[in-house]
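Tip: read the tokens left to right.
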């Protein structure tokens, strides 16, 4: 492939990402509603529990660090952790209870009803994420999902209070769009805390 064709290919690859990025503005209302619900849970001492498999496991860790150790200096740290960090726990659960239980089991033993459960699945069909959201709902957590395409079984099953979808079926484009979504989620949650008199996190002792 000559240089010209390569450049054309690169242009086409970038252009394929424009529409999903623009479509994000249509998710603004859902994102704002999710942020208000999250801010209320943080206000009441809730923590953000994040999970996903494969590449989405890295998104779960990225989201957790954004909240608990903000990249923007001076922004308040908010309690968040990922269920994808502890290999001993993950392999132990998987070996005995099966992969589908890997996040649900941790939620049952690490989360409280005040918390929020955020599952990341590019296809919307990741079985361990779906199972975890079902469990989180049973436990009374606020449930949120970052998905792609038509939202798969996660959207169809109605297991999440807030479903934020990237408008693409290409998992790479979905994941790129998710990064933008969760950075905006973080930004708007902080808006609720920075406006005087709106919400100030209660420190639960
Ligand atoms: O992460 C990768 C490849 O790096 C995927 O193969 C990933 O493991 C699988 O898609 C998992 O089933 C995750 O599901 P989803 O997030 O794609 O819905």
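Filled-in amino acids:
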């Amino acid at each position: 492939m000559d240089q010209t064709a390569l450049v054309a290919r690169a242009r086409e690859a970038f252009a394929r990402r424009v529409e999903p990025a623009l479509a994000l503005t249509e998710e603004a209302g859902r994102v704002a509603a999710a942020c208000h619900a999250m801010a209320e849970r943080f206000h009441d001492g809730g923590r953000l529990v994040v999970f996903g498999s494969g590449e989405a496991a890295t998104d779960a860790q990225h989201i957790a660090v954004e909240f608990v150790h903000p990249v923007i200096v001076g922004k308040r740290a908010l309690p968040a952790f990922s269920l994808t960090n502890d290999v001993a726990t993950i392999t132990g659960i998987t070996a005995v209870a099966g992969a589908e239980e890997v996040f649900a089991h941790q939620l049952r033993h690490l989360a409280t009803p005040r918390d929020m459960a955020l599952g990341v699945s590019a296809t919307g069909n990741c079985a361990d994420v779906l199972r975890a959201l079902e469990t989180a709902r049973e436990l009374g957590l606020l449930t949120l999902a970052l998905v792609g395409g038509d939202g798969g079984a996660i959207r169809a099953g109605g297991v999440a209070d807030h479903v934020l979808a990237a408008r693409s079926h290409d998992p790479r484009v979905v994941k790129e769009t998710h990064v933008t979504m969760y950075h905006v989620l973080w930004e708007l949650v902080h808006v609720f805390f920075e406006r005087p008199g709106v919400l100030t996190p209660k420190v639960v002792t």
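The longest strand covers residues 142-148. The two ends are 63 Å apart (CA to CA).
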